From TrEMBL:
Residues 1-18 form the signal peptide. Keywords: Signal. SUPFAM superfamilies: FAD/NAD(P)-binding domain. It comes from Aspergillus pseudoustus. PANTHER family: PROTOPORPHYRINOGEN OXIDASE. This is Amine oxidase domain-containing protein.
């Protein structure tokens, strides 16, 4: 009966032109909640169907002794997240600072660990950043300030490493690569350059952002309160939409089959021998190359001084199951789980095993970072995607509209509502 009701609602909304009917939204993540809020501001009523038992989408945490261990988004600041911060302020959720006391690189197969180069931007980095700023304004700015409404020129359809190979930004390339790896944005030899170019839009590498301490926020709490306090929509939790009563059209099939995602995992795991408040990044063959994608951990953060639980992120091949990724991650952690500061190069303290009982939370983000590859970009993917909006009275908004990032998905949802519903 309930499923029947969902289908009726969706069919009516997708097929009727009447503005009396509620707009049906699938998913109560940042995209769905922002779309609902914007629609409601235009006087439309909304109903949201969410498969999970909680709102927030990716924004879920594991809590222990009142502390949040982030299994989804965590980083935020006024520079990179102005619209997100307006919501956080409106619902009274505050930020915290995170300052790791030590930073390490690790070899995920041998467990060898060494001190990471300092994070402070070097004078060479700042000079490159200045040159890059002018370059970005020239080639990318028009794509960055709004949804992608036109196709990319050839220069922007190449991979990140190919694009950098044609420029002279070695320091910047190393920073980009480091973030691409930690954030599960895939292999730099395959990832087209537009997504990393958005780091600039978000002020991620601008000197003030690099200087300030990292700010984190409990995004789950933000979206929980957003849904309760500011969004009027009726939200049906635990309601998976299997079909909206419409067949995918051939053009929808073509466009969506070109979408790539990352098999990204987040977890909270006890590492009892690594120093607290320490940060570990995967080492790669060179500062500008990606590691092989094999299910290994790429980024590990001991978040609290009072706890030996770490938040960590692993990347699997598309065909790797959560069980396989968990096994590879635990093997790798069992080689790293020691205090590297007390180690002499020729006198390795043995690492302590990490086993399944140390895993407090492990979450797969199977559809993380929807984006399109170089071939799709070269084939004019954006026009095809934009042409789908409104067909069968169905609209799409997610990280795909720009880049997987809370700020972008909030802004993209508003743009879709503004473009298609405001009149
Ligand atoms: C580990 C991790 C760390 C991140 N860190 C950051 C960060 O520090 N800062 C930042 O800005 N961004 C970060 N992000 C990105 C950010 O989380 C996403 O961009 C954002 O959450 C996407 O929101 P969304 O609503 O588009 O998608 P989602 O959050 O995936 O929400 C989609 C919702 O739709 C539901 N759904 C899907 N299909 C159906 C269906 N058929 N029926 C019913 N419901 C359905 C899903 O259950 C889900 O709840 C991170 C993401 C991850 C995974």
């Amino acid at each position: 009966m309930y499923r029947y009701l969902c289908l009726i609602l969706c069919s009516l909304i997708t097929l009727s032109a009447s503005s009396e009917l509620p707009v049906c939204i699938v998913g109560a993540g940042a995209s769905g909640l922002s779309a609902a809020h914007s629609l409601e501001a235009l006087g439309r009523s909304t109903v949201i169907f969410e498969e999970k038992d909680a709102v927030g989408g990716n924004a879920q945490n594991y809590y222990e002794n009142g502390l949040p261990y982030y299994l989804g988004p965590l980083l935020v600041n006024n520079g990179s997240h102005p619209e997100t911060m307006k919501i956080a302020n409106a619902v009274n959720v505050t930020t915290s600072t995170y300052t790791p006391v030590s930073s390490w690189l690790f070899n995920w197969t041998t467990g060898e660990t060494w001190v990471s180069p300092p994070d402070e931007p070097s004078p060479e980095f700042l000079r490159e950043y200045q040159r890059y700023t002018a370059h970005w304004e020239r080639i990318f700015a028009r794509f960055a300030r709004g949804a992608y409404t036109e196709n990319m020129p050839d220069e922007l359809t190449v991979s990140t490493s190919e694009w950098f190979a044609g420029q002279n930004y070695p320091q910047l390339q190393a920073r980009f690569t480091r973030n691409i790896i930690s954030w599960g944005y895939g292999d730099v030899d395959e990832l087209p350059i537009p997504s990393p170019n958005q780091f600039y839009t978000l002020s991620i590498f601008n000197p003030p952002s690099l200087a300030r301490p990292q700010l984190t926020i409990d995004f789950h709490e933000v979206f929980e309160r957003y849904a309760r306090q500011l969004v009027d929509s009726t939200i049906h939790l635990g309601s998976k939409i299997e079909s909206i009563g419409l067949e995918l059209t051939p053009s929808e099939r073509t466009v969506f089959s070109a979408v790539q995602t990352t098999n990204y995992f987040s977890s909270a795991i006890r590492l009892n021998n690594t120093p607290r408040l320490s940060l570990f990044r995967i080492a790669t063959e060179s500062p500008t190359s990606s590691p092989p994608i094999a299910g290994e951990p790429v980024y590990i953060e001991g978040r609290f001084n009072t706890s030996d639980l770490s938040c960590l992120y692993s990347v699997g091949r598309p065909d790797q199951s959560p069980e396989e990724v968990a096994a590879v991650t635990l093997q790798s952690l069992s080689r790293i789980n020691r205090d590297p500061s007390s180690q002499e190069a020729d006198d390795w303290e043995p690492a302590a095993p990490v086993d399944p009982s140390d895993v407090k939370a492990f979450r797969q983000h199977r559809y993380y970072f929807p984006h399109f590859d170089q071939t799709a970009l070269q084939g004019g993917w954006f026009d095809k995607f934009n042409n789908l909006q409104g067909g069968n009275r169905t609209y799409y908004t997610s990280g795909l509209n720009r880049v997987e990032h809370v700020e972008f998905v909030i802004v993209s949802a508003r743009e879709v509502v503004e473009a298609h519903f405001s009149s």
